[in-house]
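Backbones bend. We report:
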Amino acid sequence: DMFVINGETNSLVLNSSLFTLQQLSAHTGLANQKTFISAHNYCFFLGSDGQFYIVRTLDTNSDALATTVISKDIDLKIPPISITQECIENASACFFNNSYYVAIGEKILIYNYLHQAWTVYNRINASHFLKSGTQMIIGTRDGRLVTESENFLDLGVPYKAYWKSRYLDMGDSTSFKFFREFFVVSRTFDMMRSEVRFKFEIDYSEFD
């Protein structure tokens, strides 16, 4: 269960609302306190059930709070994430640059507040985060301090990743569209092998 303290004072003399303890309409309790982050008028947290939530107000009633799942599209306990309950209980989090960062197991899960989508980082094995001005510093379990860079390398190694676009229906899913040209721009590195593959879906058939 989750509870919230409402009110402004515990004095009966002042003309203000008294403190009260209110139980939230919540799906679950906290996995641990280190994942509970307040940002953009929301509270982000990892539940003990392995789901991520935000605490939000119901309609226009600022006193009525409830939780909403934001991780319906991911499952922490199956590949490619495969996180144990122990990792969930020891996770930590930070909010930086419009994103909710969660260090969990050997991965970092990032929820982008603006795009409402998830990204998974591997190999960093973070234990905690520290915000310093406009930079975020990540502490790893082997005693290193790392930061995000702009050289497109992951700890000195090119990223191995894939990107899948949404369906480009141009706002009208019932009409056929025709593309004359399609451009993809990629960057390669000296002394590093780069392999870029593309897969298209045309009329429900996939083409490499």
